[in-house]
Amino acid sequence: MTARTIGAVSAQRAAMAPEADAVAEEGLRLSNAALAARVAGTAKALLAAGVGRGDRVATLAPPSIDFWISFLAATSIGAIWQGLNPRYQRNEYAYLLEDAAPKVVFCRSPFDGRAYLEELQALAGTDVQFVTLGEAALGPAHPFLATGASVSDGALVAAEAAVQPEDVAAIVYTSGTTGKPKGAMLSHRAIVETARSNVGWIGAEALACTVCPAPINHVGALNNVCFTTFMAGGRIVFFPRVDMAALGALNFVERPSYLVASPTAFAMMLAAPGIDFAIFDFYKCIVFGGAATPAAYLEHVQKTGARLSSVYGQTETTGMFTYTLVGASLEVMSETIGQAIPGTEIRIADGETPVAPGTVGEIQVRGVCVMSGYYNKPEATAEAFTADGWLRTGDLGVVREDGNVVFSGRLKEMFKSGGYNVYPVEVELAICEHPEVAQAAVVAAPHPTFQEVGHGFIVLKAGAALDPADLKAFLKERIADYKIPKSWTVLAGFPALANGKVDKRALAACLPV
User: Fold this and answer.
1) Does 176 score more than 70 pLDDT?
2) What percent of the chain has pLDDT over 90?
3) Which of 275, 273, 304, 272 has its CA nearest to residue 287?
4) In this model, does residue 406 exceed pLDDT 90?
5) CATH classification of 415-508, choosing from 3.30.300.30, 2.60.40.1600, 3.30.70.120, 3.60.21.10?
6) Helices and strands (H, E) in the chain, number of each type
7) Where are the alpha helices (DSSP H) in 28-129?
8) Beta-bridge mates of residue 120
């Protein structure tokens, strides 16, 4: 596709393959032509509601066709789309609605027994228009779409034509691990060109179909899963929640070719009795990231026969911007995040000075994937970039001799123990090599002699038992003594952020006194 805006991508799909499936959800399937018609109807209704270029439109919904229609419709006329997670609580909604100030809010309510519409209406100003979403996807029978009848085709075409690649298409909020969430502004250029790059290295055939159960407010769902597949002409199957048994059954019906996963997802799948990844032989490409992935997990996942790739990205980079090359070994995929996707550059630096290969420094990036800045936060935007235009990720890494980058952890998670730098990711990987361990997380704990030492949180595999003394002996053969946690806590599971990553702030609050 040659399209340069989100709306143009959607239009090209409809023109090239009008009858091909575009989206599906619990029995409903829409072709490219049918999806385009519903998007146009919703876009007209937004115009009738006074939404114009630069106005914000929010959607609170599970992964669904409604989510996708609202995103495509809003961006097609130059509005800026924002996703709201049904798992959020009142204070989170209050902050996000005040910060982005959407003019229209689409809301699935009730959902899972919760009356979201009443909650949001109590928080929003009187000038916000709410559109209640039901079980059926937005279509001609919905009262909101009927309001668009007053908008001519010419007015819609004019609004679409005014959209430029550098216009902001979406505000995606960070998880807020270091304070209030910041809204990363992702342009049409960033979303479209990053997806185009991803299609190039993944391959259109591998992107024929994907299943999306991920929260719509997360860049992983919006870009890594959905828009990359959409750009390739593939089918997106939406599922409203992460239910491993139900998702497994759905996979055997839809036979998706593309999966975006995480070490946590692999751990959950491996925990299922008698699981054998060989039964998932319909996958052609499985990408995984969000944390280091133990090689022991990948030994099972490779039984699918799919191409595997370790990836890395952030909200501010429109999702994943690294990948491991075709044919990479399990060692490379387990221990590195690979190399930059085409159109993007990576450097490892100390401040603004690149460091030598083999030296730990901050991972910095520039290229097609980089955000336009933080919404309403010019000072935070300035701090996010170096003087020469590189985005500071706040993550640490080191370039190996083979050109692959090793992720060393968050800059703010690194701690010093007795003067030595300790990178929690390295320790967590070593812990996960133990056959009884399912997941591991390491946080810094105060110490009277060494200032800080590691405290290890672990989740054991089903039915496993492990003595901390035995684990320490196991680690002594793998990492330096100062890196080994001095104390341990065994948990049934880890607290998670809205994006699915381990909430280390919550773990730190659980440190023994």
Assistant:
1) no
2) 73
3) 304
4) yes
5) 3.30.300.30
6) 18, 26
7) 32-48, 65-76, 90-100, 116-123
8) none
Report whether 503 contacts 440 (CB < 8 A): no
Cα 364 to Cα 355: distance, rounded to the nearest angstrom: 12
**CATH T-level fold of 257-410:** Rossmann fold (3.40.50)
| Six token digits for residue 40 | 């146009």
405 sits in which H/E element? strand 405-410
Q: pTM, whole model, 2 decimals?
A: 0.85
Which tokens hold the place of 389?
């235009």
Select from 418, 162, 206, 201 the least CA-distant residue to 304.
206
Span 61-94, pLDDT tens digits: 999 999 999 999 999 999 999 999 998 888 889 9
pLDDT level of residue 498 (50, 70, 90 thresholds): low
CB 214 within 8 A of CB 64: no
Give residue-wise pLDDT tens across range 354-384: 999 999 999 999 999 999 999 999 999 999 9
CA of 78: how far to CAs of 66, 167, 191, in Å? Answer: 19, 7, 14
pLDDT-derived band at 179 (thresholds 50, 70, 90) equals: low
Which pairing describes strands 56-60 and 28-31: parallel, antiparallel, or unpaired? unpaired
Are 354 and 347 contacting, i.e. CB atoms less than 8 angstroms apart? yes
For the sheet with 373-374, list strands across it: 129-133, 104-108, 56-60, 80-84, 168-173, 183-187, 373-374
Beta strands 80-84 and 104-108 are unpaired
CATH of 6-165, one of 3.40.50.360, 3.30.70.260, 3.40.50.980, 3.40.640.10: 3.40.50.980
The encoded tokens of residue 264 equal 């946590």
Judged against a pLDDT cut of 60, whether residue 289 lies above it is answered with yes
- Asked if residues 434 and 477 have their Cβ atoms less than 8 Å apart, the reply is no
